[in-house]
Amino acid sequence: MIIGISDESHSHSLRKGTSEAPDRIRKISRTRDVYVENNKESLAYTNSGKAQSKIFDLGNISRENIPLVYERITYDGKVPITIGGDHSLTASIIQGLGNKRGPISLVYFDAHPDFLSSTRNFYGSVVYDCLPYIDPKSSVMIGIRSPELEEIENIQKYGITVFSPADIQYYGFKQVIEDILSKIGKNIYVSFDMDCIDPAFAPGVSVPVPMGLNPITASILLKSITQDGILGMDMMEVCPKFDIQDNTSHLASRMICELLSSVKVKPKLPNF
């Protein structure tokens, strides 16, 4: 289930415009990834050789409606795929899911740890704001390459495992995948900030950082981590105003399609 949240009210970035991302990603996906044959529409095939046709788009919701919407989705056994918006939205989503599923293994794709604790409730404190609902020991950060000292201290304090782009290049993604899968638990939530991708491939983000992941590596990691099922995923921080020929929006759409072609759905929760 696709959900858009057109909100960037908790962003401090000098680049504005992530609130435009949900509608832009949908538009570019429909323009570039939908084919019409015999008057029937279908999505493009993915790298797995599978097409993804059973997708329901709920449309856009407000930040305030996150708890109600995600509680209902969780009980219905659906996998919410959220398009933001600034990254602070993830904390509200995690809170809603964590209250129903128990401690979550957070897989956090980002150039930044977003682990500040001196300032709260904004796009730079996401992971710290999520701490009551996640299991830090079974959570991982991927693509990190621009941490602040306070964030490094919090990573060490809470024991979250970090894989930088240099780690993945040096050890190889097969070894990194094995390490990640041995670390994470069963209740997996994936948060994907598009700035984890190198700006050569994804220039349209709010805080670009050089020397990031390439799209193929990120896609393989994403699919390997999610193949046995996830609670949900979000795609954050696409900034269309700073994109080049909508390449970042298109890449975000393709990353979502790659995931949907292989992910399993968690079982529906019983009613009490």
Automatic annotation (TrEMBL):
Provenance organism: Nitrosopumilus zosterae
Record keyword Manganese present: yes
Recorded GO MF terms: agmatinase activity; metal ion binding
InterPro entries reported for this sequence: Ureohydrolase, Ureohydrolase_dom_sf, Ureohydrolase_Mn_BS
Biased composition (Basic and acidic residues): 7-23
Cofactor descriptive note: Binds 2 manganese ions per subunit.
Cofactor: Mn(2+)
Protein name, per record: Arginase family protein
Annotated family: Belongs to the arginase family. Agmatinase subfamily.
Keyword Transmembrane: no
Pfam family name, one: Arginase
Entry-linked PROSITE patterns: ARGINASE_1, ARGINASE_2
Keywords carried by this UniProt record: Hydrolase, Manganese, Metal-binding
Region feature (Disordered): 1-23
GO biological processes: putrescine biosynthetic process from arginine, via agmatine
